[in-house]
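hiii so um. not sure if this is the right channel but i have a protein structure encoded as tokens and i wanna go backwards to a sequence. like what aa goes where. can anyone help
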């Protein structure tokens, strides 16, 4: 569970001793990200102090995690990294690095490793999971979000540089293949997530023709910058507008996306 201080920051209340800006002004979340973060924060494991986020994008989720944990976010895309670094300059805690996991010190391990909307962009997803699992302390945790159900793969996925979507059983097998256990998966997003996905696919169909010849890698680099709130007013509208749907999705056991939590067995287990 989040601390009272973190709940206040996530609600947009000004932080004492901060920059005078609320967390939602510094690092606003898009509509889909609000739905996702509502699930993520309820699946954060107990008893952790250090967090590594793989592919942290513009740092909106990381900014919230840094309120409660010793946070490191890694982002190889230079444009997204620059925005994330600027945001974290206004925050009292947390670190953003322009690098990838493979380039990190092998001895630097974390209680929790997380990756949100990253795995689907990687062709060798099984290999990536093994690398990420290698950054977890024995007995530590892994938290992941991905788009759900391969039969929903459509224009937006292609536009964003997704190699695939994930069915729960296949994702569980992949994660267990990386040495992780105690897998728990939650589908989320209904009903708003379906409507947002319909809109993204309509946009994707129009834009794909203009992207002929653009590689998946280039599409991936720009995907995290799409549909980000463009003003503080729009950010507030997004937060308040998604609030009833965040409550609704908690009682609807389906949706177009997944969050997975798993554990690395303790040494000797």
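sure thing!! here u go:
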């Amino acid at each position: 569970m989040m601390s009272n201080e973190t709940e206040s920051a996530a609600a947009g209340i000004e932080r004492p001793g901060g920059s005078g800006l609320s967390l939602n002004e510094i690092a606003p979340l898009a509509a889909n990200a609000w739905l996702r973060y509502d699930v993520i924060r309820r699946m954060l494991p107990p008893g952790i102090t250090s967090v590594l986020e793989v592919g942290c994008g513009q740092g909106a989720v990381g900014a919230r995690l840094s309120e409660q944990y010793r946070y490191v976010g890694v982002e190889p895309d230079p444009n997204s990294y620059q925005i994330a670094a600027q945001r974290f300059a206004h925050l009292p805690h947390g670190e953003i690095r322009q690098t990838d996991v493979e380039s990190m010190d092998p001895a630097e391990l974390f209680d929790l490793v997380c990756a949100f909307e990253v795995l689907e962009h990687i062709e060798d997803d099984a290999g990536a999971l093994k690398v990420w699992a290698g950054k977890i302390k024995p007995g530590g945790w892994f938290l992941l979000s991905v788009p759900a159900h391969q039969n929903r793969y459509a224009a937006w996925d292609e536009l964003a540089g997704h190699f695939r979507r994930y069915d729960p059983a296949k994702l569980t097998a992949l994660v267990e293949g990386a040495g992780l256990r105690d897998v728990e998966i939650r589908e989320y997003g209904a009903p708003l997530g379906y409507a947002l996905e319909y809109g993204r696919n309509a946009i994707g169909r129009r834009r794909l023709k203009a992207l002929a010849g653009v590689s998946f890698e280039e599409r991936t680099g720009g995907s995290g910058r799409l549909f980000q709130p463009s003003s503080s007013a729009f950010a507030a509208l997004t937060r308040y507008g998604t609030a009833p749907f965040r409550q609704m999705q908690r009682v609807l056991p389906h949706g177009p996306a997944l969050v997975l939590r798993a554990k690395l067995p303790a040494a000797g287990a």
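oh and The mean pLDDT is 89.
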